[in-house]
Amino acid sequence: MRTRTPRRLLGALAVLAALSLTATACGSDDSGTGTGGGTPKDVAAALEKGGKVTVWAWEPTLKKVAADFEKKYPNVDVELVNAGTGDKQYTALQNAVAAGSGAPDVAQIEYYALGQFSIGETVEDLSPYGAAKYGTSFTPGPWNAVTEDKAVFALPMDSGPMAFFYNKKVFDEHGVKVPTTWDAYVEAARTLHKADPKIFITNDTGDAGATTSLIWQAGGRPYKTDGTKVTVDFGDEGTKKYTATWQKLLDEKLVAPISSWSDAWYKGLADGSIATLSIGAWMPANLSSGVAAASGDWRVAPLPQWTEGGKASAENGGSSLAVPKAAKNKELAYAFAEFATTGAGATSRVAEGAFPATRADLESRAFLDKPFPYFGGQQANRVFAESARNVGEDWSYLPFQVYANSIFNDTAGKAYVSPTKLDDGLKTWQDASVKYGNDQGFTVDE
Questions:
Q1: Is 58 strand, coil or helix?
Q2: Signal peptide span per the entry (predicted)?
């Protein structure tokens, strides 16, 4: 997360959350009618008085949470609005802030994008409302993503500790053991592809989130931010570990040139031609719904390690609930965000299929013992929970990560689909990110 930003930068920062960069410049004035800087007592009073809370979110598990919140607080009306997923919503939110009207009371914001809103001072610091007390309630990765010093800019809604999903049927057929290191992973890729040229260890055409998550797991920390001073350096040792391994896979054509979430991707996961995924713990629901034909074939294991015997993991995905400064009733907005992310609200969302960011849910017997029929009855949550405990600390995103991710395929992404080397591709991405950051008023070093 980030520290406060000089007002001279706010006009430039207004466009950072908009992927298309179409939002007009804006300041950080509080255009909402709520009091702001509320206290727990103010929140209690707001709940008793009631009113309307508009929530922009695409997460389906919030539907039940909204109904439960209205039942508990009958004077409150919750309006759930799907303003678009990810970047589309961020553009709409920034445009509403710039226009001075139309902003929601609560907004779902992914961890990688939250810094853009906090540094632009367009979301509330929730610590005065009582949010700081939850510091030990959430797992380290999500909590670190929403906090800066004593400020809490959102409450974690879910998390995405990474795990290794593999097709056991394919592995067994070709006598391949589950790799515990990335070196063994490369050997498994070679064995599978030699046995059947139609089988690839995984797919990859360049994905910013997947790439940075594996660099995170390898110990890389390419981004550092101190207020408006930013460093981007993809030459660190962790990044080199990742590129050395992935370059072997690309050079030997052991990676399927198929984009994730495409029809070809789902087909490959179903027929076994894509044999593994290294991805967030939210993936099971997507496999169950999108790759139903392969039910029983897949299993879950810890990520392969960069060092034999290690346990390092990283986050891949996850989002939070923030209260825009333009919210009309900040106290009521905070009350909903708190309800949805802690206690019964969080437990309800886990039951609906969300992966928890809360320690209590992550450590509950019901959660850990839950069998997954899709994974042959495996208690997969035990693997996910262990991963959450081993997420590397001190990771940070750029305060303009949405933009950086939007140019990944035009820069670093070329290395996954052409002779361009990964090190060179990441350097091109780095240079483009540095230029953009400096153009926006940051001081960016390499």
A1: coil
A2: 1-25
Q: Which residue has the tokens 């360049």?
A: 206
pLDDT in tens, 5-42: 333 343 434 444 333 333 322 333 333 334 456 788 79
Closest Cα partner for 27 from 47, 7, 44, 42?
7
Q: Choose among 150, 147, 251, 243: nearest CA to 193.
A: 251
Identify which of 387, 357, 429, 328 has the alpha carbon closest to the alpha carbon of residue 162.
Answer: 387
Encode pLDDT of 175-224 as tens digits: 999 999 999 999 999 999 999 999 999 999 999 999 999 999 999 999 99
CB atoms inside a 10 Å sphere around CB 6? 9
The dihedral over CA atoms of 221, 224, 230, 231, expressed in degrees to the nearest 10, equals -30
Task: Report all structural domains of the chain as residue ranges with CATH numbers, in order of start.
Answer: 7-159+318-362 (3.40.190.10), 162-314+394-445 (3.40.190.10)
- How would you classify the pairing of strands 229-232 and 443-445? parallel
**Mean pLDDT of the residues in the chain:** 90
Q: Where are the alpha helices (DSSP H) in 174-328?
A: 182-195, 208-217, 237-251, 263-271, 283-290
Length of the chain: 446
